[in-house]
Design brief:
The chain is of the alpha+beta class and 271 residues long. The protein folds into two domains: 1-114, L-fuculose-1-phosphate Aldolase (3-Layer(aba) Sandwich), CATH 3.40.225.10; 116-271, L-fuculose-1-phosphate Aldolase (3-Layer(aba) Sandwich). 38% of the residues lie in helices and 17% in strands. Helix 5 packs across helix 9 and helix 6 packs across helix 9 (219-239).
Length: 271
């Protein structure tokens, strides 16, 4: 059996958490990631009949029974994942009862998955219905996106429109727009349910005064979605107080979307 520490999915988690920490998006123990894995891929590295312990999830994820995820741990710092993945990450399988996680590897200090795992599982379920190739849910606190929620109206159409206007690539990268939630208490099922409802329409959901959730087919896609929003939010925060001499007009946003053959939120443009 291969060494789990050399597994590509462990390497992916190490690289992306280190990168997000370097970006300044995940202070202290902020942020969490869950990545759904293929059973045959994990079986190359772990004995799938060996369950270390079981952990209640606090949520009925019947749709995900048997699915395997690598998940960041609660209270863990992204900056420590690269040096000690076995303590800061865990590989879990949703048990037959739908409400229990079977720990297959990791959390070696007795820890457990992020407190926001129910929110992740809810979003995974919704996105899998939309896209069978969906695999990743990522939550982080990108600085400029968070700052923007303090000064910009928390309206999906207006927020998306402003972000799209900031640079040409935005409508190309997320033509489906950005979902927006008002401030809510984090770490409970209520915010998870609200996020999952937004995931019916969007791969990106901004949590007002908190951060962002992204969903995608792999780490690069999901990180890239968030990264692009954050770049646009940075531009907005740099110029919001200045006279706008130039902007990308709505007819130009439409032209870009149509040139790339995209299904985009036409109702988010004022045409």
């Amino acid at each position: 059996m291969k060494d789990i520490l050399t597994a590509p999915f462990v390497e992916d988690m190490k690289k992306v958490t280190a990168n997000m920490y370097r970006q300044g998006w995940d202070e202290r123990n902020g942020g969490n990631i869950s990545y759904m894995l293929e059973e045959d891929q994990v079986a190359e590295y772990l004995d799938l009949t060996h369950v270390i312990r079981t952990i209640p999830t606090g949520f009925d994820a019947t749709e995900l029974i048997g699915k395997i995820f690598i998940v960041t741990g609660t209270g863990k710092y992204f900056k420590n994942v690269e040096g000690d993945p076995e303590t800061n990450l865990g590989i879990i399988r949703i048990a037959a009862d739908g409400t229990t996680a079977e720990l297959l590897w990791g959390y070696k200090d007795g820890g457990r998955f992020t407190s926001e795992l129910p929110a992740h599982l809810m979003s995974h379920m919704v996105r899998l219905r939309k896209d069978p190739n969906h695999r990743v849910v990522m939550h982080t606190h990108p600085t400029n996106t968070l700052a923007m929620t303090h000064v910009h109206e928390l309206d999906e159409k207006k927020f998306t429109h402003t972000i799209w206007e900031m640079c040409t690539e935005c409508i190309v990268v997320f033509p489906d727009g950005i979902g927006v939630l008002p401030w809510m208490v984090c770490g409970n099922n209520e915010i998870g349910e609200a996020t999952a409802r937004k995931m019916e329409e969007y791969r990106l959901v901004v949590w007002g005064l908190h951060g962002i959730y992204g969903a995608g087919r792999d780490m690069d896609e999901t990180f890239g979605l968030i990264e692009t929003v954050e770049k646009a939010a940075q531009l907005y925060m740099l110029i919001a107080h200045l006279p706008h001499v130039n902007t990308i007009r709505d007819e130009e946003l439409k032209a870009v979307a149509e040139a790339f053959g995209l299904e985009y939120r036409k109702d988010f443009l004022n045409l």
